[in-house]
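Review form for a predicted model. The reviewer records the input and the model, then writes brief findings.
Reviewer: anonymous (R2)
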Amino acid sequence: MSTNRTRVKVCGITGIEAAMAAVDAGADAIGFVFVEGTPRYIDPEAAAAIMYGLPPFVSTVGVVRDLDVDQFCELEYKCPAHTMQLHGKEPVDVVRQCGPGVVKAFRYEEATINSQLTRWAKVDEVDALLIDGSDGGEGTAFDWSKLAPHLEGYQKKIIIAGGIDEHNVSEVIETLRPYAVDVSSGVEDEAGVKNPEKIARLCAAVRAVDARGG
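Model under review:
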């Protein structure tokens, strides 16, 4: 699971100022949460307005949970993000129909990690797996050292989320060498309110650990 550079996604973006702070800090992607009733929810059309205001070469990710295929397509039409992240209990057939090029997210649990990795390895429409410390948006970390053995020889790209901030991101990278880290609460002052300085320090910490080879 080695990579030359760890990508950074700043998720839960709700305004253009936060989006540009992430871009200026060097983030590779920004994420929009399309799960209603959550503190970082953004209307898809509002997200699209932010997306169209971004400079070139910045990826956008739309986060959805437990939509059926018709709902997924309707939302994707309103905000055609570069990548869609399925962060619920979506069955394999739904994930296939929502692909190709999707990210499938799930919560890390020692009892189920092998079955999850095996299941999604067989789904060509899934480009990467996001492994979280919760069901999403709770800022809960997990024991990364326990995950590491399960990823040896694994082929799909791995994204790690959950409780990551400027202080522990180097540990995540050193332990797992993931394709990317996904941050949200760790760069906020409160739920949904991003702090540009925290974003900048997080991105700088990622570059520093990459520069020394993990």
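Findings: The chain has one domain: 7-211.
Further findings: The first strand starts at residue 7 and ends at 10.
Recommendation: see findings above.
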